[in-house]
Each structure stands twice: as C-alpha cells, then as structure tokens.
Amino acid sequence: MVIPSEISDKIGEFFGERGLLSKTLVGYEFRPGQIDMAGEVLDALVEGRYLMVEAGTGTGKTLAYLLPALLSGRRVVISTGTKNLQDQIIESDVPIIERAYKYERKIKAVTLKGRNNYLCQRRYFQFIRQGTLGFKDDAGAFKLIEAWARKTKTGDRAEIEGLPDDFAPWHEISSSSDRCVGQRCFHFDDCFVNRMRREAQSADIVVVNHHLFLADLEIKSAGGMGVIPNYEAAILDEAHNLEKVSTSHFGITVSPFRVEELVRDLLSEMEAEGIFNKDVNKDVQDAARKVGESSDAFFGALMKKKGFSAKEENVKRRILKGFFTEGEIEKAEVLRSRLQILADRMRGLMGDTDSATSIVRRAEEISDAINFIVTMPDDGYVFVCERRGRGVFLSAFPLDVSGEMKRHLFDRVDTLIFTSATLTVSGKFDFFKSSIGLDGEAGEKVIPGGFDTKSQTLLYVPRDLPPPNSGDFAEEVSKAVEEIVQASSGRALVLFTSIKNMREVHEELSPRIPFETLLQGEAPRHILLKRFQREVSSVLFATASFWEGVDVPGEALSAVIIDKLPFDSPADPLIEAKMEYLERGGMNPFMEFQLPRAVISLRQGIGRLIRSDGDRGVLSILDSRLYKRSYGRIFFESLTEFPVTDRIGDVKDFFR
C-alpha cells in the first residue's frame, strides 16, 4: 500500500533538522535514528504488518511511534511494561506533539489501567456503613482515602498521595470483575471503571500495560466485551518483557487468601441483598464456614511440610508428582467438594443474579485450579509451591507461551509494532521471536542509540577477578568496587544478581568509603532513588528491581557497576523446568535460553548509565568469564558501541 505523500511528508516536517520538533524543544538535537524509526513505524501501521524495532537509548522512540500512530488514521493502542513510561507518554510526549502542531484541540490521550486501580463506590460505601474493617490498624490511610474519595473524578488510587503501593486493604474497596454486579449496581452510571472506558472510546491514544493488554485479548477471545475499546493496531513498548509478563498472565495461582476473599465477598453480597438474617441463608453460611475450615486444613498442611516451615519468610520450590501426600490430596478433595456445595447453595439462594453467578464462577475456578495443580496432568507447565509470610501459594505456569500468544494475539491483531532498547542478541531478533512464538513474517529494524557512547562511556572489565563461584568473590568484588567509586567520587549504582552478595559487599564497603551508601530494602524504591539523586556523591547498592526503569540523568550517576553476568539461577523453579523442557525438545537450553536472557538483562542494566546527551560515565562488569569462557564473545558482540578496557588506570583517567 502506498502511503499518501501528505502523510509521509509530515514525518520529515516534524522530526527534520529544522522541523517542528526543533522549534518546540529547548536544546533540541537532530536524531537521524528517530526520523528513521518514525518512517518505519508509519509504513507498518498503514500497510498493516508486523514490525520489530530495537531503538537504542537516546533515540526518542516514544515520539517516533506516537506521531505515526496519530498520522496513520488507524485506531492504535499502546502497551507498555512500566507505569513510568505510561506517565511519560501522557504527561510529556503527547503535550510535545500538541505544542509542536499548536493543535486547536488537545490530543485526547487516556491511560487505561487494570480495574483494581479504581475505587469501587459500592464496596467503599459498604465499608463506610460497616466501619473501617480491614482499615482498623490503618486509620491514617483510611482518612487519606476518605478525603480523596469525596473529591476524586477518576477514582484512580494513584491520585492518593502518601498511600503505600503495597497497602493491602485497598483490594477490599477496589473494583474487581469478580465482585462487579454490573447494571444492577446503584453506582453503575457513575462507576469510575465505566467512566474510564467511555473516555477511552473517544480517545486518540489509549495507553495500557502489558498485563491489561493480554487480559483484554483473552476476554475477547472467549467472546466477551473486553476492557480496551476495539483497535486496529497495537504498539508494544518495552517488549523485551513480553514473555515474562505472558508467562505470569497465562499462569494459575491459588492461595488461602483467594478462598478467604471468596467467603468474605459472599457474606457481604448476602448482606447487600438484605437476606443476611433470613433463616434460609443458614445453609449458605454453614457451607461458607466449612469451606474456610477445609482451606485452613489443606493449606495449613502444606505450611507444615518439610522445607516450608523454616525461619525464612519466603520459600519457593518447584513441585513434582509425589509432592502431595495422600492426606493432602484428600484435604484438597474435601475443599473442592465443599466449594461445589457452596456454589450450589448460593445458586439456590440467590438464583441467577450477577452476584450469585460471580461467586459460583469464582468457587469453580478455585476448585479447578486446585485440581489442576494437585494432579499435575500437563508436562507443559511448571508447578510451584511458595510460602510468603503466613500464606502458601500454589501456581502453575506455562513453559511455552507461543500457543497462547498465537491464539489470543497473533490470530486476532494483524498490525503489531514491538519495540524496546533491548530486543536483539548479537544483532539478531531470533531469541525475541521464539520467546513469544512469533513465527510469521515481521519486519526488523535496529536503530542505533542517540548518544555518542564512544566518547561518553568506557566499559571496564577486569581480567584478574576470581570466578563468581569462588569463596573470595565477594571480597574481591568489594575491593574492585571501592577502587571504581573512589575514582568516580561516588555517584555510582552497584547492581548485584543476588541479595546475599549485595549485603556482603555493602557491609564491607559502607564503613570504608567516604560516600553515603544506600541499600535496597532500607526504604521504598522511589524514596531510595530520590535520595540517590539528591545526594550527588552517594552509592546505591541494589538488585534485580533496579536493573530496569531507573532514569537518573546528570551528575548523580557516573558509574554503573555490575558484579557478575546476570544469568538466571538454575535453582529458580521456572528456569529449571524451562531448561528441562527445551532439552526434551532437542535444544541447547544454555545457548538458546539462558545466554540470550542474560545478554538482554545485562544490556538493560547497562542502559541505566547514559540517559541524556550530557551524561558521561563508566560501565564496569566484574566478571572475568567475559574473557575466559567462549560465550563471552556473545556478550561483547551485543556491546560493540562501548570502548573496552581491562585497566583500572583507564577508569581513573576517564574521571580526571
């Protein structure tokens, strides 16, 4: 399909050296990669095909797909991996386009979140009538919510300043498809979820996260209405996380908390229907009580199993056939039968009302999940038992998501753009394609980053450090980190692949270096990052959650130090099972799975350093296997933009 010149010309008019963007942004620098990417994306959107674009840091990729999405004339949804990027698109990038074009009308851009982000007014007012219930120990937080609820127009919990991200009682008053009574709800017309859906229907740009994107596809595949308005094309940013997100999404998890919530919601719905004190509901209450007792018996038995009653708060283990004893299987069957009795009695009491139908469906889903995990009928799944605090979680995750992705995504959407700063390994997209089951034709484009990494960075990889499995590795890493942060005057992010190593090195260095040290876990992530930016010479010690989504431009970050190559632990249940699964299929699990995942993780970690044109800094990888193992070549092939040294003297010279 030929793109009309009046549309394609707008790419140059906007991104060109003297284009609209240059007149809008202070300190603008022309980026050839940005205009190149925008042209590729526009072509794919108009022609209706798949495209993969790796756009290095500094390309300006969000604008490079936002403008084509608006110009294409097609209804486009944008899916991201992080909230930070969602906020950037809505609050920064869309306004840039508006200012550049001096639009007479605003571009209507809407972030559509999972419904648990929104207040359910029916549930909230039930809580007001009943007292604070789950908020009894959180009176301060409840006052915040009360004050916010009186004035909010969106119902989005993100508006509540000071409410912790992990505030558990929120789920009691948040919207949930399980608890929604639809048009029977008194608040249906002013429901915050429905309001956001209506806003999205008329939006020019709809932004969602990957979880919601997949959930919507699954609902529509089953014949449901879905959450996201119908669209013709999708742009998936931060697509390197897509396999991980889809594995989690298409998995199954059951826990005592899920059972408790079911029982609690059932009793709450009965009260709301005005039948709480009627004699007829005694059977339902008895059935609910017995479900609770059976749940305690089954999950309580798992808590007492060897390896799960240890002092460690969190324990995660892969489980195989034979894990469940005959007694535990019997307890599971009792729980399942009582869930069925509860569903039958609920149906008899409340008929086919929305409330009853929802409760019955949830009871059956829990029963089916328990049966699937206890019987383990499918070797295409990994089964996991995890203890978190006072609860046991049983899960099943698919080892290959390609079938689900084909059925829900590739068979339904004919225009897809996948983009990220890290999609390739050694310049090839093969691993990304295989990880999500993309076996059809797709365009490929690698856009170099927008920064001059040859002059802005140095990659330091010492040769003389011991291998990571040696007893003195942490001690030698401590010495190497000390030398680097002394040279950089602090201003360093030290990334570890394990909490144990992070704590050991921090404990060793904290009293020795003349800079403030910050340790992951001492405060919430966003607080640590603010302190790190404010205390310019500080050193932040962190692990996995800081490998992505950290954006600290300027002098506060001049060194990123990585203790060792970020291979997934083979002891992780999902990784262990996936490697066995690939081996059964005749593949080399190390070369075709572990290695490419580590390369992409390393590139993500390295990407924390240079976030603006004025940044300079040193990247250090303290793993001599890069020189001593044959696979080191694969890592270096993915880091060709960086000048490399093995001499600490070069690091010191760089900072002089």
Automatic annotation (TrEMBL):
GO terms for molecular function: 5'-3' DNA helicase activity; ATP binding; hydrolase activity, acting on acid anhydrides, in phosphorus-containing anhydrides; nucleic acid binding. It catalyses: ATP + H2O = ADP + phosphate + H(+). Keywords: ATP-binding, Helicase, Hydrolase, Nucleotide-binding. Its cofactor is [4Fe-4S] cluster. Residues 20-287 form the Helicase ATP-binding domain. It is an enzyme of class 5 (isomerase). The keyword Hydrolase applies. Its EC number is 5.6.2.3. PROSITE patterns: HELICASE_ATP_BIND_2. GO terms for biological process: nucleobase-containing compound metabolic process. The keyword Nucleotide-binding applies. Belongs to the helicase family. DinG subfamily. This is DNA 5'-3' helicase.
